[in-house]
Design brief:
The complex is a heterodimer of chains A (328) and B (316). Chain A is an alpha/beta fold and 328 residues long. Chain A is built from twelve helices and 14 strands. In chain A, α10 links the parallel β13 and β14. In chain A, α1 packs parallel to α7, α3 packs parallel to α4 and α8 packs across α12. Chain B contains eleven helices and eight strands. In chain B, a hairpin with a 2-residue loop joins β5 and β6.
Chain lengths: 328, 316
């Protein structure tokens, strides 16, 4: 049930969880503080509606929490397990990578792991190096995992519902700075399919490929570019794995100029995968080399005012694009 | 303990022994590759614990799991085929020795990462109860696993959530080649249960009859409390760490009378007046014949192919 008016990203997730939990009694929610509403309010009210059996606080044991969710997923439940900060995913990597991602294959198909691992990425000023990372590239590198990065409330809701219904493990990466973003939702907004990118802004001069927290910034940069007579097309990937490369390539063929932009560290970031695929599959359509934009490979300083020295902000992204276009 | 059940336990141990001997042969002869660890010395633990499980219970094991998987009812032909990487393997040749899954018997996993199965056992126990069954999860692991964070996290969470998990530690006092006292100040693994008030006990696991009686009490407690139980079973690894490994820990020939479950259980069956030495020998021979036939059939089977990989991935 959607209320009228604007819905925030975190509320959209809350709605999606409630909708799926209502429809399917095997959907359970686990994580630290989830029954209290979670660090960002995403799970607020679920325990009152669905009970303590289905919305369970866990101790600070990321490895065991994700492992428990995996064990539950292979025996008939559909767990949605939260890892509060993607920085803490490091503690759960054995459970996620060596077990959840591989059980279907290693078992010769006897096991399926319908698990959703919810976590969040990104820097919002002052959280420091251990609470601000964007580690989606790690998860995208592991065979057996799907990785989604919704940027908007509608997509958060639609992709969460699709992820819960997926028979395989999905890493669902929210953005820390996005929880307050608002959008008008409609009751007949359906599922958003995993593996489908979308065009946020149509344009003909330049393609900006982005996802997650970078999408909002890319939108603002696109309007800055428009003021300078540059018509940018913004492609929001929405899903990293499986990658909707055909939507990207269609845009590349139209504009011939591409910037791949993410908040994560540039070096070995997921942008490198996108850039490689573009030049492999649409080289003849490129007027310029593919340009990537991302953070410098330095652990983030805690002082909020220093973040933009590491992670390009709107002005930084704009400058980089203008310099790139001028130089070419 | 009825005479017939005792015979079945003994026969099942003999099957496991025969199976593992053949696996060792196959590795040494180069007929198969991979990381393979046989469970010779652990047979009583495997058959006794599996014998007290219900069909609705879940089993998890680790890298030394052939015995557990067989004791739970897996077809030796399918287990051997899996170890050989053949199409008819339990996991279509995709999992191998360390990752045996046999869903038909609710053997939901083995892991090659020490400690990796503990949290999944908690999850299986959790879901059994949530879905209205009185099933429990039984998870086997070794003494080496008790140094992992996974072990301590699992004890804690199983206690806090009252999860019906029977945690069976096969303590052979050695983790690969390092003896226990080099990596823990705690000799008796049951001690780890104390801070969590988890019921626990330890025993030497060589007389399958005695182990079964004990395991039955433990699993009943798990099922009806419901809650976790830590069962420490002392065994000795009578072979190397991996199949074909020539190194031995201790003098295994001298140890056999005390630590070989087949010898010790045979003595028990004779002492009870249930079976003679000749009868017991005939069970061993029969087990060997059965297993050799299954192994020969497995050896002659088709290796898994790249097509099988694609077929697996495209199944929805």
């Amino acid at each position: 049930m959607i209320e009228g008016g604007l819905t925030s990203y975190s509320r959209a997730l809350n709605l999606a969880l409630a909708e799926e939990m209502e429809a399917d009694p095997t959907v359970h929610v686990f994580g630290e503080d989830v029954a209290e509403g979670g660090a960002f309010g995403t799970t607020r009210g679920l325990v009152d509606r669905f009970g303590k059996d289905r919305v369970r606080n866990t101790p600070i044991s990321e490895s065991t929490i994700v492992g428990l969710a995996t064990g539950a997923a292979i025996t008939g439940l559909r767990p949605v397990v939260e890892v509060m900060f993607i920085d803490f995913l490091t503690l759960a990597m054995d459970a996620l990578v060596n077990h959840a991602a591989k059980l279907r294959f290693m078992s010769g198909g006897q096991l399926r792991v319908p698990l959703v691992l919810r976590t969040q990425n990104g820097a919002i000023g002052g959280a420091g190096a251990q609470h601000s990372q964007s580690l989606e590239a790690w998860t995208a590198h592991v065979p057996g995992l799907k990785v989604v990065t919704p940027a908007t409330p509608r997509d958060a809701r639609g992709l969460m519902r699709a992820s819960i219904r997926d028979a395989d493990p999905v890493v669902f990466i929210e953005h820390k700075g996005s929880y307050g973003l608002k959008e008008q939702l409609h009751p007949d907004d359906g599922l958003v399919a995993i593996g489908e990118a979308t065009i946020r802004r149509h344009g003909s001069d330049l393609t900006i490929v982005c996802y997650g927290g970078a999408v909002t910034v890319a939108g603002l940069v696109a309007s800055d570019l428009a003021e300078r007579g540059i018509d940018a097309e913004v492609v929001d990937l929405r899903t990293l794995v499986p990658l909707d490369i055909s939507t990207v390539l269609e845009s590349v063929r139209k504009t011939g100029r591409v910037v791949v932009y993410h908040e994560a560290v540039l070096r070995a970031g997921f942008g490198a995968e996108i850039a490689a695929r573009i030049q492999e599959e649409a080289f003849a359509d490129l007027k310029l080399p593919v340009r990537r934009i991302g953070a410098r490979a330095i652990p983030l300083p805690a002082a909020a005012h220093l973040e933009s020295a590491i992670i390009p902000d709107r002005a930084g992204v704009l400058m980089t694009i203008l310099t790139f276009l001028e130089a070419n | 303990m009825e005479r017939e059940r005792a015979m079945q336990l003994y026969y099942d141990m003999a099957r496991i022994r025969a199976f593992e001997r053949i696996v060792e042969e196959l590795v040494v002869s180069g007929a198969t590759r991979g990381l393979i660890h046989t469970s010779i010395g652990n047979e009583a633990s495997a058959v006794a614990v599996c014998d007290v499980m219900e069909p609705s219970d879940y089993l998890l094991t680790g890298h030394r799991g052939h015995g557990h998987v067989l004791a739970r009812g897996a077809d030796p032909y399918e287990v051997m085929s899996e170890i050989l990487g053949h199409q008819d393997g339990l996991c279509r040749g995709m999992g191998g020795s360390m990752h045996l899954v046999d869903m038909a018997h609710r053997t939901i996993g083995a892991t090659g990462v020490v400690g990796g199965n503990l949290s999944m056992a908690l999850g299986a126990a959790y879901s059994a109860r949530q879905l209205g069954s009185d099933g429990v999860a039984v998870v086997f692991f070794g003494d080496g696993a008790t140094s992992t964070g996974a072990f301590h996290e699992a004890l804690n969470l199983a206690a806090v959530w009252h999860l019906p998990v029977l945690m069976v530690c096969e303590n052979n006092t050695v983790a690969e080649f390092t003896s226990r006292h080099e990596h823990s100040v705690v000799d008796e693994i049951v001690r780890f249960a104390e801070p969590f008030a988890i019921p626990a006990s330890r025993m030497v696991a060589v007389d399958a009859i005695a182990v079964r009686e004990h395991a039955q009490e433990a699993i009943a407690l798990v099922r009806h409390t419901p809650g976790p139980y830590l069962l420490e079973l002392e065994t000795r690894r009578l072979v190397g760490h991996y199949a074909g490994d020539p190194r031995r820990v201790g003098n295994v020939r001298a140890m056999a009378d005390t630590w070989d479950p087949l010898l010790v259980t045979a003595e028990r069956l004779k002492k009870e007046g249930w079976y003679t030495a000749d009868e017991l020998n005939s069970f061993v021979v029969e087990a060997e014949v059965e297993i050799r036939a299954a192994a020969a059939k497995a050896k002659a089977g088709k290796p898994a192919s790249p097509h099988d990989i694609d077929a697996l991935l495209s199944a929805t």
